[in-house]
């Protein structure tokens, strides 16, 4: 029996099994087994099989955003509207057959927007170009799930299931669990909070099913069994995501109002150019980019070409963003702006100083 059939069999057994306290343990084991088979499916078996490898598109700019959706929801139309790149659009499905990159210039930052082929149900099990699409999506900093506002709401769930099956966790934080393999000493399991969604017995048997007989596990959050399996598998990707409902020109105000209510959703019409600027603003916020303007001694800061970094960046990152030998030769830096203790005056800082959006930085070398 192939892996796909085994997966199907387990899924059927899970669907047949009623969820209650008595079956919780058995379901936990099934879930662990399922996760193992899915991981196998995603590993390339031979070099030429292509499974697990994405489209070969060079990363460029300061961040990458990937467009995922069923066919004909308007992904290529969005790329063509927001960037200078034209991607073929048409009323028939699977118009786009490869990854097409475009660039959005926004507030001095360059965001790469990747148009991708539409995916179909079952994509995670190898249907269509699904696996290639999702592997490429994993290389992005933000996912835009594009949906057709005129289609049933269920399409969103179906897409989420596909992404979940390949280990992409949307808008979720990594579970707060410390897991350490050892060579001897058995299993030490501690929980600093009360576990209400799973229990010690389930966790121990899952560890056993993974042949993990020596390890330290410290659980610091009320996790589910699935979240524990994610920690064990370790290759999960936790990614921010916006749900973009397109074609709002074709729905009623009542429907629109309902779709726009969700925290992570943005409603647009590519064809009518509605709300596209707002979508870019939201992408900017989700990406959490910071712009740092550099200033040479005695000159005005360069406001046209900032160094773009992630929230949490330090002076060291700023140095590396300018030239790779700079950090090693830093004497000190002067910083003006929100991160300066003496704002509006400059503060003298070292490599570890955290910078903030729109800071101005002068670097002094040895
Ligand atoms: N009514 C309406 N139609 C739209 C809108 N945006 C795109 N379309 C139409 O939707 C159809 C599909 O658009 P595409 O951009 O090719 O969709 P896609 O998601 O790239 O499709 P595939 O590449 O086949 O997966 C085209 O006929 C577009 O004209 C919109 O905002 N409103
Ligand atoms: K299309
Ligand atoms: Mg397309």
Automatic annotation (TrEMBL):
PROSITE patterns: G_OBG (PS51710), GTP1_OBG (PS00905), TGS (PS51880). It comes from the Eukaryota. Residues 288-365 form the TGS domain. Keywords: GTP-binding, Nucleotide-binding. The keyword Mitochondrion does not apply. Pfam families: MMR_HSR1, MMR_HSR1_Xtn, TGS. Residues 63-288 form the OBG-type G domain. The keyword Protease does not apply. This is Developmentally regulated GTP-binding protein. It comes from Somion occarium.
């Amino acid at each position: 029996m192939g892996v796909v059939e085994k997966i199907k069999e387990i899924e059927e057994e899970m669907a047949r099994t009623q969820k209650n306290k008595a079956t919780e343990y058995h379901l936990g084991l099934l879930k662990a087994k399922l996760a193992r088979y899915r991981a196998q499916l995603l590993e390339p078996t031979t070099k030429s099989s292509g499974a697990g490898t994405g489209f070969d598109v060079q990363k460029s700019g300061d961040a990458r955003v990937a467009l995922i959706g069923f066919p004909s929801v308007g992904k290529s139309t969005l790329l063509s509207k927001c960037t200078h790149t034209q991607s073929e659009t048409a009323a028939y499905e699977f118009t786009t057959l490869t990854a097409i990159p475009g660039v959005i210039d926004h507030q001095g930052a360059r965001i790469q927007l990747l148009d991708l082929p539409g995916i179909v149900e079952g994509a995670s099990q190898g249907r269509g170009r699904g696996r290639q699409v999702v592997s490429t999506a994993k290389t992005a900093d933000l996912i835009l799930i594009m949906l057709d506002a005129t289609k049933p709401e269920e399409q969103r769930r179906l897409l989420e299931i596909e992404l979940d099956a390949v280990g992409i966790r949307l808008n979720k934080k990594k579970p707060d669990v410390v897991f350490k393999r050892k060579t001897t000493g058995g299993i030490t399991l501690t929980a600093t909070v009360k576990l209400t969604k799973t229990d010690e017995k389930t966790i121990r048997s899952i560890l056993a099913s993974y042949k993990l007989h020596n390890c330290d596990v410290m659980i610091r959050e009320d996790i589910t069994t699935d979240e524990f399996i994610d920690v064990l598998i370790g290759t999960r990707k936790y990614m921010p995501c916006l749900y973009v409902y397109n074609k709002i020109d074709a729905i009623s105000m009542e429907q629109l109002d309902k779709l726009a209510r969700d925290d992570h959703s943005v409603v647009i019409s590519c064809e009518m150019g509605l709300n596209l600027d707002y979508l870019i603003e939201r992408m900017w916020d989700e990406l959490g980019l910071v712009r740092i303007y550099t200033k040479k001694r005695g000159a005005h800061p360069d406001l046209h070409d900032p160094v773009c970094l992630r929230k949490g960046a330090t002076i060291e990152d700023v140095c590396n963003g300018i030239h790779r030998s700079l950090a090693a030769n830093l004497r000190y830096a002067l910083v003006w702006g929100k991160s300066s203790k003496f704002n509006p005056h400059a503060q003298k800082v070292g490599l570890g100083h955290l910078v903030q959006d729109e800071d101005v930085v002068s670097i002094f070398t040895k």
